[in-house]
Amino acid sequence: MNEKYQLSESSPIRLERISRADLFEHSGAANLVVDTDTTILAVNARFETVTGYSRSEVEGTLSWRELVHPEDRERMEEYHRLRRVDPELVPANYEYRFITSGGQVRWGLLTGATLAEDSRTFLSVVDITELKEKESALGRAEELYRGIVQNQTELMSRFSPDFTLTFVNDAYCRYFGETREQLIGSSFVHHVLPGDLAARKAYFASLTPERPEDEMEERAILPSGEVRWQHWHDRGIFDEKGNLIEIQSIGRDITDLYLTRERLDSTIEKLKNSFARAVEMAGKIIEVRDPFTAGHQRRVARIAKEIATTLGLPENEITAIELAALAHDVGKIHVPSEILSKPGVLQPTEWSIIRQHPVYSAEILKTLETPWELAEIALQHHERYDGSGYPQRLSGEEIRVEARVISVADMIEAMSSHRPYRPGVGVERALEEVEAGRGIIFDPAAADAALYIFRKKGFEI
Questions:
Q1: How far apart are CA 354 and CA 253, in angstroms?
Q2: Of 168, 384, 405, 452, most Cβ neighbours within 10 A?
Q3: Which residues are within 8 A (CB) of 381 and not within 5 positions of it... i.e. 6 or more apart?
Q4: 374, 279 Cβ separation under 8 angstroms
Q5: Which CATH number does 258-455 carry?
Q6: Measured CA angle at 144 (ends 139, 150), to 5 deg
Q7: What is the pLDDT of residues 387-409, one digit of tens each?
Q8: What is the pLDDT of residue 284?
Q9: DSSP secondary structure string, 246-281?
């Protein structure tokens, strides 16, 4: 420190037991004392580290103005002037940019005070460059996030459990024809059909910390009065006690998809009914030739559908199972009636003919154009889980799930009903066979479902 300005123990600024020089030198900030004409009188070691200037380069020779970024200089000079007029006119601390000896621009947080009974100023500067860079990066990230969220075509919202909206994106505003100012802080209940409100409340109440996410399709009323359908993905946000405090929701309009699905469902239902009538006619022809199988296919279809539903199979597979079951024995029309209705034991040659009926059924069903692979299902309905079935000796997962379900239903109905070569043994005896054949002859899951619907649910043929 030069002779022009020395910080000593005798200085007017002194704290008890701590010298002014120690405070100045070791406070952790870049400290400097500036004269009235802005000349730097004294600096500490931290100033040298932060700016790259040595004491000898600045003390008594350099104005602090030369270290300030040109764009900030006018503001800093004004603060320097005002501090001498009235310190209350100047912020307690403020940010500015300074230039290091190497020409690098860095950010500082400056705190200044006029020395007691002196015209000189004490300045303390903390380098906040890294903090500003992180702040800038965060700002860019937030701007990017806002751009992504606001430019989304999907509807985005957040709301409290009482349906009060706390956030909506631009797409949400456009969709519901209301401004953000109108929506934020208000309930969206006016968008909900009265008959749907209770179900909506129950749906959100079902969200838990263990299962915070769910999806739903719902209707909404637009300002025009039009009712449209949306698909929503919702996520609950919970406090530390597990209380639901907010829901984040992302949705999209599915009205066109919903209407198309309704039309498709209607078409499928018509096709199903038409096909069922055709199968029923074929069944009646078979029943004329084989009266012992009267109603067999219809009963198998009922059992198989119930098993499939219990298994939770997709609706399309349940439909395929029901329709294939209604036609699984249609190939018996090619089996001579004297074999079908023969009392007593069949000869090996006769059994070989009987065992061809799945092939005949598949050939007939191939002629029908349907959305389901009914021919393949009918072909496999006598295959067995362990590979001992016919006609292809498939096993396990090689057999279609639809055929595995029908296989169980077919056996239960067949054993329960009278045949020319043996009397019916009843449902319970048939279920015992299912238990015995579980995982061997029959698919384990299909067998379990069959046992459940008869013994637990009280299903009757």
A1: 54
A2: 405
A3: 324, 328, 358, 403, 406, 407, 410
A4: no
A5: 1.10.3210.10
A6: 120
A7: 999 999 999 999 999 999 999 99
A8: 67
A9: EEEEEEEE-HHHHHHHHHHHHHHHHHHHHHHHHHHH
CA distance 229 to 330: 43
Fold category of 152-253 in CATH = Beta-Lactamase (3.30.450)
How would you list the strands of the sheet with 244-253, edge to edge? 165-168, 155-159, 244-253, 227-238, 213-221
The residues facing 329 across adjacent strands are none
Rounded-to-10 torsion of CA 105, 109, 114, 116: -130
Q: What is the dihedral of CA 247, 253, 254, 255, to 10 degrees?
A: 120
Match domain 20-128 to its CATH number in 3.60.10.10, 3.20.20.100, 1.10.10.10, 3.30.450.20: 3.30.450.20
Q: What is the maximum span of the chain, computed from C-alpha positions, in angstroms?
A: 130
Q: Is the peptide bond before 391 cis (omega within 30 degrees of 0)?
A: yes
Tokens standing for 237? 């946000």
Cβ count near 174 (within 10 Å): 11
pTM of this structure: 0.48
Return the structure tokens found at 93: 């601390």
The pLDDT assigned to 86 comes to 86
Q: The tokens 């199972």 sit on which residue?
A: 321
- The pair of three-digit structure tokens given for residue 12, joined into one six-digit string: 């007017």
Amino acid at 359: V
Query: Where in the sequence of the chain do the CATH 3.30.450.20 domains occur?
Result: 20-128, 152-253
